[in-house]
Amino acid sequence: MAPLYYSITTEEQNVSLTILSKSAFQEFVARLLPHYRVVGPVPHDIGYSFEEIQDVTELRMEYPTTILPPKKWFLPPKETLFKFTRKNGGVIQDPPETPPTVILGVHTCDLHAIQLLDTVFSSGQYDVHYMGRRKKTLIISIECLSPCDEHSFCKDMGTLTADEGYDLHLTDLGDSYAIDVGTQAGADLLQNYSSSSVATKEEIQKLNAVINAKWPKFSYRLDFDVSELSSIMELSMKSPLWEELGNRCLACASCTNVCPTCFCFDVKDEVELDLVTGQRVRNWDSCQLDDFATVAGGHNFRASRALRQRHRFMRKGKYILDAHKHLGCVGCGRCARACLVNITPVSTFNELYRQQETGSH
Amino acid sequence: MVTIASYPQMQTGTIMDRDIYAPGLGTIVNIRPLTSLEKVFTIQLPEGQSLGHRPGQFMEVSVFGIGEAPISISSSPSRSNGTFELCARKVGDVTTALHNLKVGDKVGLRGPFGRGFPYENFRGKDILFAPGGLGLAPLRSLINQVLDERNLYGRVIILYGARNPGELLFKDELKAWSERDDVELMLTVDRGDEAWTGNVGVITTLFKFISIYPRNTVAITCGPPVMYRFVLMEFIGKGISEGNIYLSLERKMKCGVGKCGHCQINNIYACQSGPVFPYKEIKGLEEAL
Ligand SMILES: Cc1cc2nc3c(=O)[nH]c(=O)nc-3n(C[C@H](O)[C@H](O)[C@H](O)COP(=O)(O)OP(=O)(O)OC[C@H]3O[C@@H](n4cnc5c(N)ncnc54)[C@H](O)[C@@H]3O)c2cc1C
Ligand code: SF4
Ligand code: SF4
Ligand code: FES
Questions:
Q1: Which of A19, A190, B47, B270 is least enclosed by beta carbons within 10 angstroms?
Q2: Which among A74, A301, A304, A315 is the top mutation candidate for probing chain B, defined by the most B β-carbons within 10 Å of its own β-carbon?
Q3: How many separate domains does chain B show?
Q4: CATH of the domain at B218
Q5: What global pTM score does this model have?
Q6: Are residue B243 and residue B277 in the same domain, yes or no?
Q7: Is A82 close to B258, i.e. CB distance below 8 A?
Q8: Is residue B4 in some structural domain?
Q9: How far apart are CA A250 and CA A340, in angstroms?
């Protein structure tokens, strides 16, 4: 994907670009707080996470990555689908009440992942739970200017920038943010709650300089172009690598739990102490867990860790792309950071590529 | 505002205001035990609605407080008459709770889901059914559809196997089929008992007794996971083409609507693209059989 601002020259100033000084940005967020649930990156002892903030000082717009992606605000780890009463077997639908929400500081890899999830939950059978939250949420993303850490491979996956999926998109110019308006809702938000100004010639030049300086800081880590990934995966069904990964994998599901593009779930009933009312809940599930594909009678369609690792990487590199026209991996590196036995997408994809190049399977 | 869900209709396109996970309600109007493990439930929809299903499709059946399970529709559209039948084997939480329900009780229902049999395309052809065990439950829907418009089809051959005589399902219907001269029914059991005088052996041992005209035959199977490869070899051995072989595949299913990921066979969602597949379509899939 072409970098967003490469083409903006001073001659093309009609591209509408807004500037908000850092102090005006703080004020903007402070003005949102009474009207919106505001979520953004917040520091913790073990890293950053997307949390609801009460005060703008909690927010860290410059952060390496979060442990969990912003996904949890649309697809929570556990949620009630509906309540029921066992008395007359009735389903009680409480329309989900999501307050209007603004999520700040979303990196572009996560933005791409949200676009995938939007497609998954809005196409075919429409999921009112995910989409109900999603439609009430405005996303203010931010351009990454340096890699989160050695595990990121967003540049390879084409997610180091984004040209859609946000309501507003920020680029840090030092003492101000350049703001690209993505939607009318984003424009209204700026209009109603901020004192932004139109970018000057100098500010646009500065933006160009910042963007031009950023790309060389990110290195390519895949040994092939991402457009080849799907066909590499297709030819890798019988690779000996799966057995190797299966022997190492602990089946702990950390990799899928932290992944912004994983969306598989389990559904269960919970009954209240009165034994009459209860709720049907959905929980995040993981294809890495032993009984994910086990049916009555005990037959497990993916009984080995090798088959489950293969399934996970096939989804990331091919199946999701086939089904939803978005790559199933956005290169955020979270699974690589989380895995105790160092199973990573980059080394997996590169090894499959190497095996094919050398004809070793 | 609190609303009680009405019965979810067959969906075409995207309906944005309805919760795809919220079941409607049906009333159990009859329960018929078949064996010690299987019961047939006759279910009525509110206001005489008809289910509008296709043989091979399934329902997500809820017992509130226990959970939800996918169960095939065992009755044929030709006999719907405001009700439909589910044949459920008691194997775990939901199916046990279902077995404990009584006539008049309500169950939660979503569906019908999935792709059923394109039986209109089978007209004029001979049909070879080879269900194993509980696999008769979904195939019975198609068998009865075919028998109710019998003159539109060629031969109807049914090879049915169960582990022992006590596990044969729908014995009254098996008897009726065996008495018809336009149905060729053969039964087998893995292990017989004193009273059993029929064939003993797995279902594939029946194939040597039949001769068919492969170019005009559609072959259909459904059964426990281990059965498919062996039955397929028999179908192919008889010369039936891959496009004329249909399999109904079981997978773990949680949502039935292509989201939860449990039913995936490689890149295919069995709940939506299946459970009925022409063999031609899934032949190349590593995880299919
Ligand atoms: C398309 C389809 C059609 C089916 N048709 C019939 C039918 O006509 N009659 C019938 O008796 N059974 C049918 N089944 C199987 C039935 O869905 C399972 O037996 C049932 O889900 C078990 O639920 P449980 O709560 O009773 O068992 P549980 O207590 O949940 O578990 C028992 C075992 O079943 C497995 N299991 C749990 N949930 C599911 C699930 N959703 N799908 C498959 N396995 C699961 C568990 O992993 C465990 O090994 C069908 C399954 C599918 C996918
Ligand atoms: S597979 Fe790993 S790197 Fe790719 S999106 Fe998921 S967590 Fe990020
Ligand atoms: S995090 Fe690593 S060890 Fe755990 S399931 Fe994923 S690949 Fe296996
Ligand atoms: S059953 Fe959930 S995706 Fe098929």
A1: B47
A2: A301
A3: 2
A4: 3.40.50.80
A5: 0.90
A6: yes
A7: no
A8: no
A9: 8
My answer on whether B69 and B123 are in the same domain is no
- With beta carbons under 8 A apart, name residues in chain A contacting B11: 125
Give the nearest ligand 1 atom to B94 CA.
25
Q: Do A319 and B108 lie within an 8 Å CB cutoff?
A: no
The verdict on B131 and B85 lying in the same domain is no
**Residue whose pair of structure tokens reads 């194997």 in the numeric block:** B91
Cβ B152 under 6 angstroms from ligand 1: no
3-state secondary structure of A56: helix
Together in a domain, B158 and B39: no
d(CA A182, CA A171): 13
Ligand 2 binding residues, C-beta < 6 A: A 258-261, 316, 329-335, 345
Q: What is the ipTM of this complex?
A: 0.87
> B130 in a domain, yes or no?
yes
- Whichever domain contains B38, its CATH number is 2.40.30.10
Residues B93 and B180 in one domain: no
B244 with B136, same domain? yes
How far, in Å, from the CA of B89 to the mean position of ligand 1?
Answer: 9
Find, in chain B, the residue whose alpha carbon is nearest to that of A279: B65
Residues A221-280 pLDDT 10s:
999 999 999 999 999 999 999 999 999 999 999 999 999 999 999 999 999 988 889 999
- Residue matched to tokens 């209860």: A278
What residues make up the domain containing B68? 14-113
Q: Locate tokens 């840090």: which residue? A: A172
B46 and B150 belong to one structural domain: no
Q: At A6, phi and psi to the nearest 5?
A: -45, -40
With a cut of 50, list the residues of chain B below it in pLDDT. 1-15
**Distance (Å) from the alpha carbon of B36 to chain A's nearest alpha carbon:** 16
B7 belongs to a structural domain = no
B5 domain residue, yes or no: no
Which of B19, B167, B283 should be substituted to probe chain A, the one whose Cβ sees the most A Cβ atoms within 10 Å?
B19
Quick: pLDDT tens for B217-270: 999 999 998 899 999 999 999 999 999 999 999 899 999 999 999 999 998 999
pLDDT at A90: 80
H, E, C per residue of chain B? CCEECCCCCCCCCCCCCCCCCCCEEEEEEEEEECCCCEEEEEEECHHHCCCCCCCCCEEEEEECCCEEEEEEECCCHHHCCCEEEEEEECCCHHHHHHHCCCCCCEEEEEEEECECCCHHHHCCCEEEEEEEHHHHHHHHHHHHHHHHCHHHCCCEEEEEEECCHHHCCCHHHHHHHHHCCCCEEEEEECCCCCCCCCEECCHHHHHHHCCCCHHHEEEEEECCCCHHHHHHHHHHHCCCCHHHEEEECCCCCCCCCCCCCCCEECCEEHHHHCEEEEHHHHCCCCCCC
CA of A295 to the centre of ligand 1 (A): 6
Interface of B with A in 42-81 (CB under 8 A): 62, 64-68
Q: Which residue has the tokens 């060629």?
A: B154
Q: Residue A233 corresponds to which tokens in the numbers above?
A: 């995966």
pLDDT at A96: 67
Task: Examine the domain organization and report whether B265 and B141 are in the same domain.
Answer: yes
For chain A, residues with pLDDT lower than 50 are 1-14
Nearest to A121 by CA among A334, A272, A324, A325: A324
Q: Does B95 touch chain A (CB under 8 A)?
A: yes
Given the CA of residue A151, which atom of ligand 2 is nearest to it? Answer: 3
The residue among B88, B113, B138 that closes a domain is B113
Nearest-Cα distance to chain A for B154, in Å, is 36
